[in-house]
Batch of 3 targets.
Target 1
Amino acid sequence: MRKRHKEKLKRSQRRIKNRVTIRTLFLLIITLIFNTYAWFTYFNTISAEITAHVDKWHVQFKVDDEVVEREFPIEIAHAYPGMVDVEKRVTVINDGEKDAVIDFAIKYVRIFNDIYIATDQMQSGETVPTGATTMHSSALLTKIQNDYPFYLSLTTENNTVESETEGILVINFSWAYESGDDNKDTTYGTTAYDFYAANPGKQAVEMVVKIIVKQRNETPSTPDPEPEP
């Protein structure tokens, strides 16, 4: 009799234990659901209240009142001692909300039959023309300004263009009647004559100038993005 009573008591205890376990699991699940919902509601509320202003960053370029890309060609039809200077004025329009710093580079130059390429300014997928001499853009500009009797200058009236203002980049090509180097004048004067005789109608000098514009940043260690085209 006692044995039967003990077995009945054990079965009763197991049922109570099972009920407690199920109830505990149920309460745990309900708690998790409410906690998850509360976190989700809080997260979305906070996210909805966070706003940020992204400064507009846009610069465009004009040559002779025509909009051009950051890379644009310049052609010199005839180059000879005493020629009239060829000048191009590039207007840099900063209609963004950040001040911009202007710089430039010579990407490509053909002087008569000599071709030079600045490899540091080439984009992915571009190829070097056959027979071209490659070098860094700074070395290329130095070569043009020192190895020839003519003179190429690229200057900015103000290398910083403030927001909602304009800046000017002036490109000037000149060849004085007497450059001060008689040997260069004679050599390249003859080269020019022979070139025109062999290539009637072909431009004497062709170049591609690349304008580089970056944000003026208070934190120079952070790379500056290129402006939108």
Note: Residues 34-51, 218-224 have pLDDT under 50 and may be disordered.
Target 2
Amino acid sequence: MEFSKKMLVLHILISVILCGITVAGTLLGLDVTALAVLSGTSLVTDGTWGGFYLWKSKNENRAKYAQRFLNRFADKYGADTALRAAEIVLKD
């Protein structure tokens, strides 16, 4: 498992634990205001990290598919044409 995926899983695990502790503390009648803020901040961090991970994966996949286009079509149609086809298909 790559580093960014490990960090995403770690952040989600920490958020789940913090939210669970916050709910348990609330049910027990404890003052969990600071913990609730920390839980919310952790959820925002998860969203940010998840967005980064998806962006990174998308770009890695685009590079991989461009290489596949080049490998499949370069001999038949030429490298220039294969690169243009890959650019059109993989355009964001």
Note: The two ends are 27 Å apart (CA to CA).
Target 3
Amino acid sequence: MGASLLMGMVAGMTAGTILAFLSHLAPRFGAGNFIPDTDQPKLFGKKVSRREAHLIGLLVHILLSGIFGFAFALFVELGWLSDYAYVPMLIWVVALTLFTGLVVMPLEGHGFFGRKHDAWFIVDALITNVLWGHLFLVLLRVWMLR
């Protein structure tokens, strides 16, 4: 059981890292930054530079990706999700999108479901989470030879 949980965490972190890389590459090909700069960033009430805020954001993104991958593998091992397949992953992705929209986005200052930025922000998040889920499953299948 331990190896599959570790693989889930590593696959989640890897999928998150790939998406973070692509998000930095996309503006070079004409895609705009859909998250505008806000006021001076703060961390626990202390002002930080935009570079520090960006680095912390990347680390949080990769950490959450690893936690979400670990949790998916754990739920499969416990039998709460049926298998490493696309239908359970779609259910998982919808749950993640709801969690990030209700908890993570407000903590980051985007408001519930990202409403401070755009009405379509949550749709972008859902599409990104679906892509994360697909990358996660592909990586697991390659690494676990399924």
Note: The longest strand covers residues 42-43.
